[in-house]
């Protein structure tokens, strides 16, 4: 599925670039009129489409997911350590375990 999504993004980006290069000389000048507003809207949508597909091709989502996974693991470890050392029963139990190790 990943390969299918990559090829689809590449095809869509290529089509978007082709439409942009085909229409760029034919678009009216960007002035303060209805034609200029159409030109600006059309160019912004084409850049948005190309950018979204390029974002998918580069794979920024993979890096973000890996970073989030790392942060979650770090946070879960910190919460676990906090729970172990914060409660009085847990502290007493840890001291007793250390004493048992030291005595044996």
TrEMBL record:
Annotated keywords: Membrane, Transmembrane, Transmembrane helix
Keyword Transmembrane: yes
Domain of life: Bacteria
Species for this entry: Tumebacillus lipolyticus
Protein's recorded name: Uncharacterized protein
Transmembrane segment boundaries: 9-25, 37-58
């Amino acid at each position: 599925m990943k390969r299918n999504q990559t090829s689809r993004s590449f095809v869509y980006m290529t089509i978007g670039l082709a439409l942009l290069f085909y229409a760029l000389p034919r678009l009216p000048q960007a002035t303060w009129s209805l034609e200029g507003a159409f030109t600006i809207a059309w160019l912004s949508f084409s850049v948005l489409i190309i950018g979204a597909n390029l974002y998918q091709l580069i794979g920024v989502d993979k890096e973000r997911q890996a970073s989030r996974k790392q942060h979650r693991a770090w946070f879960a470890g910190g919460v676990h350590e906090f729970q172990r050392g914060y409660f009085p029963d847990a502290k007493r139990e840890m001291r007793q375990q250390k004493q048992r190790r030291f005595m044996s």
